[in-house]
# Entry
Amino acid sequence: MVELIVPQKTQEDQHRAANPENSAWVSANAGSGKTYVLALRVIHLMLSGTAPSRILCLTFTKAAAAEMSNRVFEKLSHWAMLDDAELAKEITKVTGHPATTKLLRRGRQLFALALDTPGGLKIQTVHAFCEALLHQFPLEANVSGHFQVLDDFAQKALLEESRKRILLKANRGDEILSGAFETAMNFGSDDAMFKALDRLVSEREAFLDWADIGVDVAMAPMFDHFQMSANS
Ligand SMILES: Nc1ncnc2c1ncn2[C@@H]1O[C@H](COP(=O)(O)OP(=O)(O)O)[C@@H](O)[C@H]1O
Ligand SMILES: [Mg+2]
# Structure
């Protein structure tokens, strides 16, 4: 296998960013070692005595979280099986200092420690973290205690269902609703209207804020603009 030659300067930069004593912001090209640095940083933290349960790593994608987690656990499981001399070399690579007996023992135990931690070492997406937070503090966040996050598929199905119900209601003689549909249909195709409805639902918070003053009042400037009356 060809060994990767990492320039001295890069190695120093990587170590600076991986040192938990430094607060670091890293921006670098793909494949340049960002994930490597993050994994190193987590291992360095644990090696210095931080309990795995006190470490939180957030990523944007599930794939990135899985990769981070794999890298940390791969390294730690590898460490558990090395002899003292090899482990000492690995630890020096992380800390930049010669390994003490205490660090050797700690390094060897980290794999078991990270696995045994209740709740595990937390490497997760920012979405998963926020969801867990909302589940823990529903009262403070003013959400229902047993909420579930809709996936795209379920959301589409629910929207379809409510759209059907509104059409049925209009069809069954709800005058205001059928009048509104008729007006809207005069301005565009049904496809355009459904697209507009989808958009409206996806931005419902903003819409509800806007409509808070009353739909008629809120709509007045638009009626003015198109020189229509609310009743036409
Ligand atoms: N200092 C280093 N020593 C050995 N391998 C490294 C080093 N820095 C990066 N690598 C390797 O380079 C590859 C790309 O790094 P990675 O962390 O995935 O980059 P990025 O996250 O920036 O896309 C990985 O296989 C990683 O292990
Ligand atoms: Mg990466």
Remarks:
- The two ends are 78 Å apart (CA to CA).
- The chain is about 65% helix and 5% strand.
- The pocket of adenosine-5'-diphosphate (ligand 1) is lined by residues 4, 6, 11, 14, 28, 30-36 (CB under 6 Å).
